[in-house]
């Protein structure tokens, strides 16, 4: 189990800070709302997101449970995964837009349809990354 000392000793606090901010924003939570859910102050959340403060093991567990992600993802794997997702989706969107005449059940897909397909892919990828 990862803990405070592991994060501090390995220098992973910057990764944790970025990951927490991204997960919070993806969930549509403010720092204050997240603080309430975790039993922390809004300033503590702000310091976590700035990399100025490290969470204790209990807080890491709460974050993991709240967002449904493994602790390893919080402190080691999220930036590579989360930062690449927009690029992957943009590439897929551009690829779809370059192929006029795409159809579904024999009906041509318009730009609005493609936008819906891309949004469905985005949500599916996010759910897969969270292990849900």
In short:
This protein is mostly helical.
Q: Which superfamily, in CATH terms, is the homologous superfamily? A: lambda repressor-like DNA-binding domains
The stretches of 5 or more residues where confidence is low (pLDDT under 50) are 1-6, 78-83
How much is the average pLDDT? 78
CATH class: Mainly Alpha
User: What is the tally of beta strands?
Assistant: 2
Q: Helices and strands, in N-to-C order? A: HHHHHHEEH
Distance between the termini: 21 Å
- Describe the largest sheet: 2 strands, antiparallel
If helices are DSSP runs of H or I spanning 4 or more residues, what is the number of helices? 7
Strand order of the largest sheet: 1-2
Strand content: under 5%
Number of structural units classed as domains: 1
CATH topology: 434 Repressor (Amino-terminal Domain)
At CATH's second level, what is the architecture? Orthogonal Bundle
Principal-axis shape equals elongated
Rg: 18 Å
Structural class: mainly alpha
> Helix fraction?
over 70%
Topology diagram in text:
Layout: H1 4-10, H2 13-26, H3 31-38, H4 42-50, H5 57-67, H6 71-97, E1 103-104, E2 107-108, H7 111-129
Antiparallel strand pairs: 1-2
Helix pairs in contact: 2-4, 2-6, 3-4, 6-7
């Amino acid at each position: 189990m990862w803990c405070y000392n592991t994060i501090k000793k390995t220098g992973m606090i910057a990764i944790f800070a970025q990951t927490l901010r991204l997960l919070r924003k993806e969930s549509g939570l403010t720092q204050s709302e997240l603080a309430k859910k975790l039993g922390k102050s809004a300033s503590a959340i702000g310091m976590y997101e700035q990399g100025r403060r490290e969470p204790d093991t209990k807080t890491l567990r709460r974050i993991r449970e709240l967002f449904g992600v493994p602790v390893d993802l919080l402190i080691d794997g999220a930036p590579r995964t989360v930062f690449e997702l927009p690029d992957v989706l943009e590439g897929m969107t551009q690829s779809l837009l370059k192929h006029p005449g795409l159809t579904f059940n024999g009906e041509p897909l318009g730009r609005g349809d493609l936008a819906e397909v891309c949004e469905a892919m985005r949500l599916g990828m996010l759910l897969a990354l969270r292990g849900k």
